[in-house]
Design brief:
The complex is a heterodimer of chains A (109) and B (114). Chain A contains no helices and eleven strands. In chain A, the strands form two sheets. In chain A, strands 2, 4, 5, 9, 10 and 11 form a six-stranded mixed beta sheet that branches. A five-stranded antiparallel beta sheet of chain A has the order 1-3-8-7-6, with no helix packed on it. Chain A is mainly β and 109 residues long. Chain B is mainly beta and 114 residues long. Classes of the chains: A mainly beta (109), B mainly beta (114).
Chain lengths: 109, 114
Amino acid sequence: SQQGEEDPQALSIQEGENATMNCSYKTSINNLQWYRQNSGRGLVHLILIRSNEREKHSGRLRVTLDTSKKSSSLLITASRAADTASYFCATTLNNDMRFGAGTRLTVKP
Amino acid sequence: DAEITQSPRHKITETGRQVTLACHQTWNHNNMFWYRQDLGHGLRLIHYSYGVQDTNKGEVSDGYSVSRSNTEDLPLTLESAASSQTSVYFCASSEFRGEGTEAFFGQGTRLTVV
């Protein structure tokens, strides 16, 4: 399966701190994406990194991809209480998209 | 604005009944997906479609079926609902590109089978 696996399962930090979440996967990919899910809502796309890219930034988000280790990390800098949500990585191969179990992030004010 | 909508948002049904969950998108996307979300499992792919008349099985397709008669809709049918199919179901759509693109998700359907 190309399903990603996030680590840690849960993360609790103080507002202003940085949050790092990791994703590992098993097979070749075209790209890897990160999504956020607020409680009871649908998933919202955050960032996409292609298999030939190593790092990508979007606002307070920084994503890295190491295809040799089949792993990715999502860094959220200067976290805010509004960042409290579940974060999922999704691997895509030939338009087939598979998700991991997610990391539950809690940012305390 | 383009969107993707699921209906109903909540459904309670009895074991053994056939249930259909609707998914409609106005993005004109070729790709459409159905996932189920259960605690501890994240999102698991049920079925997906790359275009009209195209359907494919995902990792947890047993007991589910889909059909794609037009670009906008991908209804998910539970042939004979089972308690194990109690879950939150999400539909998603994306453009068809070789390397894949971002997906847009509906708000989900919470299905309870009693």
